[in-house]
Amino acid sequence: MHLITNLEFSIMSPEMVKNLARVRIVTSELYDADGYPVEGGVMDPRLGVIDPGLHCRTCGGTIGDCPGHFGYLELAKSVINVLYTKTVYQLLKLTCKKCNRIMVKDIHLEGGEEAIEDLRIKAPLKCPYCSTKQKKVTFVKPYTYYEDKDELSPDSIRERLEKIPNGDLKKISFSGGRPEWLILTLFPIPPVTMRPSITLESGERSEDDLTHKLVDIVRINQSLKENIDIGAPEFILNDLWELVQYHISTYFDNELTGAPLARHRSGRALKGLVQRLKAKEGRIRGNLLGKRVNFSARTVISPDPNLSINEVGVPEVIANELTIPEYVTPGNIKQIKDMLKDNKVNYVVRPDARRIKVTEDNKKDIMEKITADWQVDRKLQDGDIVLFNRQPSLHRISIMAHRVKVMPYQTFRMNPSVCPPYNADFDGDEMNLHALQSEESRAEAAALMEVKDNIISPKFGGPLIGCDLDQISGLYMLTQDAAQFSREEAAQLLADAKIEADLPEREMFSGKDMFSLLLPRELNMEYKTNKGVVVIQNGQLKSGMIDAGGVGAFKGRIINKVLKLKGSDAVKDFIDRSGRLGVAYLNRRGISIGLSDIDLSPEIQKTVRGEIDKSVAEANSLIDKYENDEISVLPGLTPKASLEAQIMNVLANGVSRVSDIVGENLRYNDIIQMAESGAKGSIINTTQMAAVVGQETILGKRIKRGYLRRTLPHIRPGDLSPMSHGFVARGFKHGLTPFELFWNIMNGREGLMDKSLRTRKSGYMQRRLVNALQDLKIEFDNSIRDANGFIVQFNAGEDGIDPTKSDWGKLNWKEIVEKSVGK
Amino acid sequence: MTFDILAHELVPKHEILSKKEKEELLARLGSREEHLPKIYESDPVIKVIKAKPKDVIKITRKSQTSGEAVYYRIVLRG
User: Fold this and answer.
1) Which of A229, A598, A622, B41 has the fewest beta carbons under 10 Å from its own?
2) What CA–CA distance (Å, rounded) separates A44 from A25?
3) Domain boundary assignment for chain A
4) CA torsion through residues A86, A91, A96, A102, sign
5) Chain A contacts of B76, Cβ < 8 Å?
6) A799 touches chain B (CB under 8 A)
C-alpha cells in the first residue's frame, strides 16, 4: 500500500487547458433556429450530455456515465485571473522591471537557507542585481495595476512574469506552476454537465448562470477579436478588453469588492464559481459535509400512552410513501401477490432492473407476470423496524429502533415514557424516521438499537425509560390501602388498561394486588421510600406505595430489577402495562387540584407569619449591627459580604422552618401526593404557593442592581432591608406586591437567560469532548485504546464495570452471590 | 529545605517496574512501548525516584469507582 505524503494544488497552464479540451469555442450562439445546439458554441454537443436518451458525441456515454468534457476559448487579449490578483501584485512588486529578477537578498537554498514564505515584504527601491531604480507598483481592486501613474496591461504583466527565472521563484517558495499562468490566455469552457440547462414546463429552455456568463464572455471576446483585426482605435479595444475582464472575473467570483454585481435579466445576482463552493449551502458545507438521505420522513410528534415503548405510530400518508425493498422468493410470492392486490406495493423491479410503478391499470398484469426473481418496493407496514431520531443527536440513544404501527392522522406517535432519551416533549417537537433498506441493517437494528434493549443508560447504569407524571401518581394512589376493588371492578380496571392477566379466584382485590399482577413471580425486593418500605415477595407487593423511585425514569428500582430478572421483553411489557394501569386507575379515581388545596388554618397562618416576621426582624437587627460596626465578620469576607451572607442565611432558615410547618399542616391532598410520589412538584413548590416565596436572587446574591445604592426609585438609598432587596414575604396564593412581583420576574428572567446560555456553552464543550474521544474503544482485555493503539486506560473506568450491566454504576455483589450460590 | 513530594497526599504511589515486570506487562497488553501513556523525565516525581528513559512507572492511584487503580506510564526524555 502506498501512503499519500503530500498533495500539491497548482494552476493550469494554457497547454493543460488545450490538452484537456475537446472543443474550440468560437461562437456565442447556443442553439440554431431548429433548437439544436450550435457546434463551436457554449452548448456544443461534444461538451457532454445532459438530455436523457442521447449519447455523448465525445465519449459515447449517456447521461449518467458521461462525465462531460471541457472546451477552450482563445482570448483575444489576456485577462487576469481575479482569484490571484494578490499574488500577481506581490510578484510585480518584487520583480525588477529591467532584468526580471526577483529582488530579494541572495538565498542559497542548497546551503540550507530557507525560502521566503511570506511575500508581504517591502519592495526595494533599487534592483540588487542590475541596480536599476524601481517604479512603485500599485494595485487597485478589483483588477487594475499601475506603475507610478501608468496602467499595466495584462499582456505586459504576462510578458514580465514569463521572464522570471525558475531559480528565483524557488527563493520565494512559489510553487504549483509558472507565474505567467496566473494571466489567462486560453479560457477553459467547463462541460455542460456542471451547468445543465433545465426545460421549463412551457417547453422553454432555461440556462444555468454559468452558461449565461460564458455566453457573455465568448460574445465580447469575439467582438474584441474582430475589432483588433480591423484595426479599431485603442480606446475601443480597451473598453472591450475591460468588459471581457469584468465578465471573466465575475464568472469566477461575483462578490468582488469594487466590481458591480453581475445580474441576471430578472435582476437576481448570478452565481459565480466561488459562490458555488462557499458558505452554508455551498458545495463543501451543503453537499459534501451535509448529505441528504432518502427513505426518511419527518413530522411533529405527539404522545400515545397506548403504544408500546418499542413502537412508533406512523401516519398513513408517510407509511404509504416510504418503501422497503423485498425480494420475491418461491416462499413469499403468495404474500407478495396479496400485497400487490391490496395496493401495498409501490414499485416492482423486473430481473432486467426495469423499475415499474404499480398502478390500478397494470396491477393485474404485474400479478400475472411476477416471478421469484423479481423485487418489489412495498409500503411500510405494522411490525417493520425503523430508526427514530430527534436532533440534536447528542448520544447514541438519540437514535433508536422502533416497530412501526400505521395510524391515522398526521403525526408520529410515541409512548411518552421514551421522551427522556430523546429529550423530547410535545410542544411542537419534530422527529425523523428512517426506513431501513437491507436485511443486514434491519438485523443490526433489531439486535442493537431497539428501545427495549436501551432502557439502561450507559452513563449512570439506571433506567432511562420509566413511568412519568400521571402514570406515577396513578400507581402511587392505586397501591395505597384505600384502593379496594370487587372482582368486577378489578376486571374492568384491567380492561381499561388493556392488560391481559389472570385474576386469582377471589372476590376482593386491593390496589397492591392489582399492581402485583404486572410483577414477575420470581421478584423479591425491598427498598425504602419517603413513606415507609416497599416490600415485594414472590411477585406480590406486600407493603409500601409505588413511586418514582420504583417505576420512574432515572430512579426506577423495580424496572432495573425486572430487567435483570426477566430480560428486555419482559421489562418492556412491564413499563407499558404499569403506565397504562396507573393512568387507567387515575381515570377512575380522578385527580384534581385547586386553590383550597393550599389553604392553611388561621392559626397556622399566624405561626407562619410569625416565623417570617421573626426572620425579617433578625435580618434587620443584623443590619443595625452592621451600621454600628458591630457585625461579626466571617473569615475571608468583608463586613458587607458577611452581612449579606448572614441575612441570606437567616431568611433561608426562616423559609425552611415555614416549609416544615406547611408540610406538617396542609391537608393530605393530590398536590401533596404528586410531590410525595415524585410525579411532579415538591414541598418547596407547595410552600411557595401556600406560605412564602422567599428570597429572589441574581447570580446567587440578593438583588442589588438598579439605581445608585437602591434597587428601585421608591426605596431610600442605602436601605439594606430584606423587602428592598428581593425578599418575597408572601405566597403566590396571596398575590405578590408590585415590588415582589418585580423581584420574582427578575429572578425568572435570569433563569431563562441562564438556561439558553448554559445549553449553548455546554453543547459546544460536549461537542469538543466527543470529537476528542470519538475513536476510543474498549478492547477485549477491558483496556481503552484509540485508533492508533495508544492506551488511554488499562481497565475501563478503572473498575472495569459496564454501567449498563450494573446497578447505578455499582456491582450488587450480594445479589450475584445469592444468585450463584442459591442463598 | 527540600520538600518530599512523594509524601504529599495528592501524589500517588510511583514505582519503577523491573525489566522482567515491564516485559510481562507489555506481553499481557499485547502492546508496544510507544503505545503506553507517557511521562517526561522532567516530571517532578520522576526526578525524585530517579527513573530513566524507557523505564515503566507503575502508579497506584485512588479511584472514585474502584477505590484503587493501577496505571502505567513510560518515561520519555525531555
Assistant:
1) A229
2) 8
3) 195-288, 469-589, 595-736, 777-821
4) positive
5) none
6) yes
